[in-house]
Amino acid sequence: MTDQATTPPKRTGEWPLFEVFIRGQHGLSHRHVGSLHAPDAEMAIKNARDVYTRRNEGVSIWVVEAEAIHASAPGDKEALYDPSNDKVYRHPTFFDVPDEVGHM
Amino acid sequence: MYAQMIQSTGKGVKTLDEMDPQERAFQERINAGGKIEPKDWMPDGYRKNLIRQIGQHAHSEVVGQLPEGNWITRAPTLERKAILLAKVQDEAGHGLYLYCAAETLGITRDEMYEALHEGRMKYSSIFNYPTLTWADMGAVGWLVDGAAIMNQVPLQRTSYGPYARAMVRICKEESFHQRQGFDIMMKMVNGTAAQKKMAQDALNRMWFPSLMMFGPSDEDSVHSVQSMAWKIKMNGNDELRQKFVDQTVPQAEYLGLTIPDETIKWNEEKGGYDFAQPDWTEFFDVLRGNGPCNQERLQTRKSAWEDGAWVREGMLAHAAKKRATRLAAE
Fold first, then answer.
1. Which residues contact B27 (CB under 8 A, 6 or more apart)?
2. Are B312 and A5 inside 8 Å of each other by CB?
3. pLDDT tens, position by position, A33-70
4. What is the pTM of this model?
5. 3-state SS assignment for residue B3
6. What three-state secondary structure class fits B87?
7. Which residues lie below 8 Å from residue B280, measured CB to CB, with a gap of 6+?
């Protein structure tokens, strides 16, 4: 995925960058698989089909212009994710279930 | 390899104690097997080296289509033609994955193309050799893709996230390439005497250029030590070359072909084959642009880029027109 902060402005004439998301056959969500350049979304989907689904990888394609994606900043990692580390009770293994109760 | 002779920009490897806190945290993350992602802080040398390495790798995939593209219209059967076409299409895809990975480091696609066309960026020396007969399609798949796989499999664990992910996709597709090459060789050696001779001739011409793909010995290279510390190079050149020879000799025996090196001999002590080094003078000469096909390959790339300019511009103009029409309708 392109990082807007470090990518210099595209010189004129270069096709915009699209991020490609593919949904596989087994009902999972669309997943980011890579990127490509295309003049517009329609061509981006056509090209994504050629590049990213040559071996039955998917049944549905999303393309999103890379510029339209907002991402969390790497510097925010601690502020965003640390608070969940001390909440171990969010995981089922925190609780002991007596053997005689059986599977829960 | 597909990225040969990448000179690092650093001056030897710093110890953790010599690094400032930011660089130290970066190196410790790599040491712990963590991934570096595009927005993360990274030393300038790491960024520059990766751009060169991934860029050269991408150029190799794309220029690598040319020697094989040469035979698409002359494949012996419709099935072979379809297979070769699929293989060459894969190489275009591999180039694209890698260009995208390099772009996350802050270089544009057009800048990379320009650097290639102006000779500031290189591609693998192997693609400057001609493909003279159909058996060369077998030898290229078997040896060249085989050598590439040796290098690419460990690169799936490289420290830069986008590069590692591109390598995962590439490796998934690459083993079909090597097998189709070996399949062509099997067909040729079981054919007429003339066909078997053709297969032997292809091996004779491709063997040493394939060994060159791994690059000269880098045992004492500071560049290599730095790249290994950054985990953008995972194995030494000699180590991978040895592995390639050990894997390939029995395959050649199976085919009933003779590797054009009389010194090849199993060495029980090291558990591998002894073999002759390629002519490194030739290697450097090819890198400098004096191989049999350097000019032709580069000219083909330049022409494709220049002749396609009107298509790129036209499609952009069409997209702008469609967008304007849509906006007017809203």
1. B16, B19, B229
2. no
3. 999 999 999 999 999 999 999 988 889 999 999 999 99
4. 0.90
5. coil
6. helix
7. B212, B216
Tokens of B140: 């290229």
Q: Does the ipTM surpass 0.95?
A: no
Determine the Cα angle at B278 with ends B276 and B282, to 5°.
155
Q: Do A34 and B166 touch (CB under 8 A)?
A: yes
Residues in chain B within 8 Å Cβ distance of A78 = none
Neighbours of A87 (CB within 10 A): 9
Domain count, chain A: 1
For residue A14, give its domain range: 3-101
8 A C-beta contact, residue A37 and residue A17? yes
Read off the pLDDT of residues B72-88 as tens digits, 9 standing for 90 and up.
999 999 999 999 999 99
For the record, the structure tokens of B61 come out as 């995939």
Cα–chain center distance at B206: 16
Q: Would you state the pLDDT for residue B11?
A: 62
Give SS3 for B265: strand
**Residue B6: pLDDT band by 50, 70, 90 thresholds?**
low
Asked if A7 lies within 8 A of B106 by C-beta distance, the reply is yes
The set of residues, in sequence order, having a beta carbon less than 8 Å from that of A6 and lying 6+ positions away, is B38, B39, B105, B106
Element (H, E) at A21: strand A17-23
Ramachandran angles phi, psi of B8, nearest 5°: -75, 160
Dihedral angle computed from the Cα positions of residues B217, B221, B224 and B226, in that order, rounded to the nearest 10 degrees: 170
Whether A54 contacts B96, CB under 8 Å: no
Q: b vs e for B222-236, b when ≥16 Cβ sit within 10 Å of the residue's Cβ?
A: ebbbbbbbbbbbbbb
**Mean pLDDT in residue range A77-81:** 77
- Tens digit of pLDDT for each residue in B257-286? 999 999 999 999 999 999 999 999 999 999
Q: What is the CATH number of the domain that holds A17?
A: 3.10.20.520
Q: How far apart are CA B87 and CA B72, in angstroms?
A: 10
User: Under DSSP, is residue B318 helix (H, G, I), strand (E, B) or coil?
Assistant: helix
B108–A10: do the CB atoms touch at under 8 Å?
A: yes
Dist. CA A1–CA A34, nearest whole Å: 7
Partner residue facing A3 (CB), from B38, B109, B319? B38
Per-residue pLDDT tens digits for B146-173: 999 999 999 999 999 999 999 999 999 9
pLDDT at B10 over 70: no
> Which residues are bridge partners to A64 per DSSP?
A19
